[in-house]
Amino acid sequence: MRTSTAVILALLGLQTLPVIGATCQERHVETRAAGSVCADWAARRTLILQTYEDGSQLYNPLLFTKQLDESVATTGTPNGALLDSFRAFVDDLRSSMVDQIRAQSASETLNEHQRFLIHRLNTLNIKVENSGCDYAFNARYQAAPHTLTVCPFVTRMPKEAALGLIAHELGHLADPCNYVDVYSFSDKIKAQAANRAIQQRLLTKEIQNCLRDVPHDQVRELSTWAVGNTRMAAQALTVFASENTSRRTHTERLVTCGVVNAPVVLAPKKYEGSPYLSMISCVSERYPLNGTPAPVTGSSDIGSSAVVCDAQTPQVKETVADYIGSSLTAFALKRGLAIDPGRGDLIGMFYNSVHCDEKDRENPSYAQSSVRMSIFLQPGKSRDTLACTGEVSRECTIPPGLLGD
Fold it and tell me: Tell me: the pLDDT tens digits for 120-129?
């Protein structure tokens, strides 16, 4: 009787390794077949699959919610060198995205999308913090405070395991739905940052003085919004590119009074020129799965399609982030993103963990887990790094230029 690869691994207690000659479909998309990543993890009964020389540990995603101690789940690695290595890895990936965007045209002909995105990437705040971490192996990007927050537990894992996760979050940054015009507070107001109450009162007074001829209820509404936590954290008034309201008009007027500074780079208002437009357009024709897709084109105003940018239909934005992130992963790998020897098989771990957990259960916030896994596997460079063979099914095509081809 033949013993499955998964059972052999379980019996020997070996590190989960790629199955030589396995196709990407068998290894990563199928969930129950012998030799699949999911079958390997299911056969292992230990929480920690492998401990590496640098001190990082590979945890079994199928046991996260059952066996992960809270003190581990909510805190980062105590290994300073490991944390520094992780931070450098994230920064290298961010730099790779800048290079990916620049590679789409000559430096002297960068369009407004490219200039805006490069500025946003160069000014991105990156934090390791247990904030909003309902799932330990996670991260999130918030457009208004312009912050990528990585859950602390991620830093305990090999950095390669986080590649798909961080690339996905940078995909959100590059989605025009998250374009934000940043009106930073004046130096006078910033000088009071140490005392929030004083700063809020000063900002409110400055707004009232500037907008004396504006109806009182509008001034009150603007002031209440201006002193909110998100604006205070950013030390700026942040207005989404898709927003075309009196709030934008009043905010722009505050520039003339010296209450806030004009944005360094204005966010584009139309999709034309986005390096990722073809993928965004394709996704918008197919998602949300249980709704009414609203295709966007280059001539579409950003935010004009409520379905594409609406928080009530997250499937669109999440799938866009999957495509952008997958293109970035392959581009970064092709341009030499540092992967430790023997760890190439870990780069898909985030998508593997999602797929092995969900097994295509319906999720109103995301595409089917097998589709997300296939999006990640679409670029040949990613498949090569995972040491699997054969192509996978695809819904939308990633342009070769975004892959560095």
Answer: 999 999 999 9
Contacts of 160 (CB under 8 A, 6+ apart): 339, 340, 343, 344, 346, 347, 349
Q: How far apart are CA 188 and CA 16, in angstroms?
A: 57
> Which helix (DSSP H) or strand (DSSP E) does residue 58 occupy?
strand 57-59
- In sequence order, the 6+-apart residues with CB closer than 8 A to the CB of 286 are 293, 319, 395, 396
Under 8 Å between Cβ of 219 and 207:
yes
Q: What CA–CA distance (Å, rounded) separates 162 from 168? A: 10
Beta 236-240 vs 180-184: how paired, if at all? antiparallel
Please count the residues of the chain: 405
Residue 8 CA to residue 44 CA, distance in Å, equals: 10
Determine what percent of the chain is predicted with pLDDT higher than 70: 95
pTM over 0.90: yes
Residue 39 contacts residue 27 (beta carbons within 8 Å): no
Locate all alpha helices (DSSP H) within 111-239, ordered by sequence: 112-122, 163-174, 187-190, 196-210, 216-226, 229-234
Q: How do strand 57-59 and strand 180-184 relate by DSSP bridges?
A: unpaired
Q: Residue 189 CB: number of other CB atoms within 10 A? A: 18
How many angstroms separate the CA atoms of 43 and 34, rounded?
Answer: 10
pLDDT along the chain (405 residues), means of 10: 35 42 91 92 94 96 91 96 97 98 91 97 96 93 95 98 98 97 97 96 97 95 95 93 88 96 96 98 95 93 87 94 98 96 96 97 95 98 96 95 94
In this structure, are residues 388 and 24 in contact, taking their beta carbons and an 8 Å threshold?
yes
DSSP label at residue 32? S
100 Cβ contact list (under 8 Å, min separation 6): 275, 327, 328, 331, 332, 402, 404
For residue 44, give the nearest of 31, 62, 22 by alpha carbon.
62
Distance CA 218, CA 94 (A): 39
| pLDDT, tens only, 234-250 | 999 999 988 888 999 99
**Cα separation, 6 vs 60, whole angstroms:** 14
Half-sphere exposure of 283 (CA within 13 A, CB side): 27
Q: Can you tell me whether residue 86 is helix, strand or coil?
A: helix
Rounded Cα distance between 95 and 386, Å, is 23
